[in-house]
Specification:
0% strand
């Protein structure tokens, strides 16, 4: 099961990376196109959608690998039971907030699909397509938060904490 979860988080990270490469290709094509006298229609729209997708696809991977910014000044002073309670409270709150956001993102995608909303650029892109990447990225974050929450409930260290511990050892 661990390898399946690891592959899921890697897929989320790779998806974010593919979106960043897509942004680079679009912008490069647009620069070359301007030099040669033609434009890439809706390049700004598509690169903006790819930026949103890369941000949200990267959330689960970044959380799992301990890359999210966490204020550990107080957390480092806690140990044992106090730290576990603090982690549990933060993860419950984070998971609840992420579930709330995910629900409404999927609802927004559904409404955009039903009402057939499209972008206002040169190419009318159905808005539900780029919105789906945000909703899927948030769903992946929910899974990563739930994974960490279950680890804390089982009195284990969440994956991000292993990364934090390793980085604090490297500083010494």
């Amino acid at each position: 099961m661990n390898t399946l979860r690891e592959k899921f988080y890697q897929l989320s990270g790779y998806s974010a990376g593919v979106c960043v490469v897509m942004i680079m290709i679009i912008i490069l094509a647009q620069v070359i196109g301007r030099l040669l006298g033609f434009i890439i229609p809706s390049a700004e729209d598509v690169s903006g959608y790819a930026l949103a997708a890369s941000t949200f696809f990267g959330l689960a991977y970044t959380l799992h690998n301990g890359g999210h910014v966490r204020v550990t000044l107080v957390i480092q002073k806690l140990s044992g039971r106090a730290r576990q309670i603090q982690e549990l409270i933060v993860l419950i709150f984070s998971f609840g907030l992420a579930c709330f956001m995910t629900f409404y993102c999927f609802q927004m995608v559904w409404e955009s699909y039903v009402f057939e909303e499209v972008s206002h650029g040169y190419i009318p892109i159905p808005i539900w397509i780029p919105q789906s990447s945000v909703a899927i990225g948030l769903l992946a974050l929910n899974i990563a938060l739930l994974d960490s929450l279950i680890a804390v409930i089982r009195k284990q260290k969440p994956a991000y904490q292993h990364q934090e511990d390793e980085s604090s050892l490297e500083e010494l």
